[in-house]
Design brief:
Layout (H helix, E strand, L loop, with lengths): L10 H11 L20 E2 L1 H9 L1 H10 L10 H9 L5 H21 L6 H20 L15 H4 L6 H20 L2 H7 L5 E3 L9 E4 L2 E4 L4 E4 L5 E7 L5 H18 L7 E6 L4 E6 L2 H19 L2 E3 L4 E2 L20 H4 L19
Bound molecules: iron/sulfur cluster (SF4).
């Protein structure tokens, strides 16, 4: 159940029920108990990637859609807010893998067994339900906080039954590799006190301040090993790239700020589940300096798109260029609102997509 107003909490609904029990009618949702949210400037790796990928999509995601949960928000803002919750099938598969591993880790930490077959069966059912909800138009408003629909359905992208099946096989292969790897045995030996981070679901509080800016980071796993050093693990369903290294160095700085264990000397493992390979290294001074330089350049590029930095007020929409990379728009959540002016990458017409995973 969700609040029909902000769709983020149900505190109003609880209050409304209490009023009705007393024989009164809850007057309006103006009584929302959530404090008014402020669009503060912040940084995250995904925010950086959005700016680099398409300035216009970045503007829609971080600025124009802001407040789209409010009843009195303009229709375009509401539409952008709904669209930004869309995900593509690759990220959907990746999220499913992360969630399954997170749940397994939490079970092991409370000394419960994890039955692989059962986990896969339940995950497959869950993804089938999400697929059907997406195909039936979940992105048109009835979205939930955890799943807002698939870009492929919203943009009417033709995806064959084989491709959808292959997407499920990516999930299956990633989790099979994970279960066969040494990680489950290691996690089963960990005491809860050793685990510093376990892919927290609380994104809103998962940040620290770096050079005066809120830096959001959510390590998949961070634990203290036998030598009292921090070990950070990051699961990947995609291919290796240089940005992944910068991302985990950011995680190490987050762990340092939040738990007091120095980033310098922390061990990091990037686990490429579908490639069945791992990249491990110890963070040195050079890696930290490189991350800081990257962070500085990235935040400066973001600030260059602001009219007023202290209030995080963006420049006009026309100052945010549309990408000219062919094919990128088809899987963009904002394609529907942007497509009239997009000169390339038009989505092909949808064929019947009733095939489940
Ligand atoms: S449709 Fe293309 S140009 Fe428009 S916001 Fe999306 S990626 Fe950018």
């Amino acid at each position: 159940m969700q609040c029909m107003e902000c769709k983020e909490c149900m505190e109003c609904i609880v209050l409304c029920v209490l009023w009705r029990l007393k024989g009164c009618v809850f007057p309006s949702m103006e009584f929302c108990l959530r404090p008014k949210l402020e669009n503060l400037f912040s940084w995250s790796k995904s925010r950086h990637e959005k700016l680099v990928s398409c300035e216009r999509a970045y503007f829609y995601h971080y600025y124009l859609s802001w407040g789209g949960w409010e009843r009195e928000a303009p229709p375009r803002v509401k539409q952008l807010y709904a669209l930004k919750k869309l995900t593509n099938r690759y990220a959907w598969a990746g999220n499913a893998v992360h969630e399954a591993i997170r749940k397994s880790l939490l079970k092991w930490l409370s000394a419960q067994p994890v039955a692989f077959e059962e986990m896969m069966s339940s995950l497959r059912q869950h993804m089938r339900r999400e697929f059907a909800a997406s195909r039936d138009g979940v992105w048109q408003g009835q979205f939930s906080k955890s799943f807002g629909g698939l870009v492929e359905h919203a943009n009417a992208v033709e995806v064959s039954a084989e491709e959808w099946k292959s997407n499920w096989q990516t999930v299956e292969a990633a989790l099979s590799y994970f279960m066969e790897s040494a990680w489950p045995r290691l996690f089963q030996k960990l005491k809860p006190g050793q685990v510093l981070e376990a892919d927290s679901k609380d994104f809103e509080s998962s940040f620290f301040i770096l050079e005066g800016i809120r830096l959001f980071a959510m390590p998949d796993v961070a634990f203290v090993d036998e030598s009292q050093s921090v070990h950070i693990v990051d699961w990947k369903t995609g291919s290796p790239n240089e940005g992944n290294v910068e991302q985990v160095v950011g995680y190490a700085l987050f762990v340092e700020a939040r738990h007091g264990f120095p980033a310098l000397g922390s061990r990091v493992s990037l686990v490429y589940l579908n490639q069945k390979m791992e990249q491990s290294f110890v963070i040195d001074e050079g890696a930290i300096q490189k991350f800081r330089a990257f962070f500085k350049a990235s935040t400066e590029a973001m600030k260059a798109k602001l009219l007023d930095v202290p209030s995080n007020t963006a420049l006009e929409e026309s100052c945010f260029l549309k990408t000219n990379v062919p094919g990128r728009c088809v899987l963009c959540p904002f394609f529907k609102v942007c497509e009239a002016e997009v000169s390339q990458g038009k989505a092909p017409v949808l064929k019947a997509q009733s095939t489940l995973l």
